[in-house]
Amino acid sequence: DLPGLTQKLDYLNDGDPATDDDLGITGIWLMPINDSPSYHGYDATDYRAINPDYGTTADFQAFLAAAHARGIKVIIDYVMNHCSNQHPWFLASRQNDPAYRDWFRWEVSDPGETGPWGQDVWHWYDSDWYYGLFWGGMPDLNYESAAVKTEMFETATFWLATVGVDGFRLDAVLYIDENPGQLQNTQETLQF
Fold it and tell me: How far apart (Å, rounded) are the C-alpha atoms in residues 57 and 60?
């Protein structure tokens, strides 16, 4: 958890260049730390919350301050492509809430597309099909929605400017904008 990681920082880098009993690292990459129902965390239910298994926001800020005091930069996974099917945005979207319906891609019939590993990418819910490249528990966000872009950029700003992380690993960002026959690294994705 975050307090435990904070306690081990001196082993990673004690902040004193004259010592040689630490590893001398200058960066830490944390896998997903957002609240999530899964063991892996790549399906966030709240992009601005810390998974309680790891600690609190205060624990994370204490960890960041201690890391920065030792000259260690911290980046976190920011999973921009998709969220959990338990995220409030998706729950509202699947109930046809007009404010959130277009935050995800919905079709009345199965388009029959498959993903890069041959997996089904369209998943059934109630009376419609929704798109989730990795699995039904992680529906893809629809970046053709201006509201999605705004929210995700504001969330990035929150982590960078308010919380103080040093950067992101953008998980699955190569799938932000997909075209038939080309799912990753489209020109639109690279432009994004």
Answer: 5
Q: Cα–Cα distance between 75 and 55 in angstroms, integer? A: 17
Query: Tokens 């994370």 sit at which residue?
Result: 60
Q: Is the dihedral of CA 141, 144, 149, 151 positive or negative?
A: negative
Look at residues 101, 94, 88 and name the one whose alpha carbon lies nearest to residue 142.
Answer: 101
Spell 48-79 as b/e; 16+ CB within 10 A means b: eebbeebbeeebbeebbebbeebebebebbbb
d(CA 166, CA 50): 17
Secondary structure element (H or E) that encloses residue 119, with its range: none
pLDDT tens for 104-158 read 999 999 998 888 888 999 999 988 999 999 999 999 999 999 999 999 999 999 9
- Read off the tokens for 146: 């201006």
The pTM score is 0.91
Q: CB neighbours (10 Å) of residue 42? A: 21
Q: What is the DSSP letter of 72?
A: -
Phi, psi of 82 (to 5 degrees): -150, 170
Question: How far apart, in whole angstroms, are the C-alpha atoms of residue 181 and residue 170?
Answer: 23
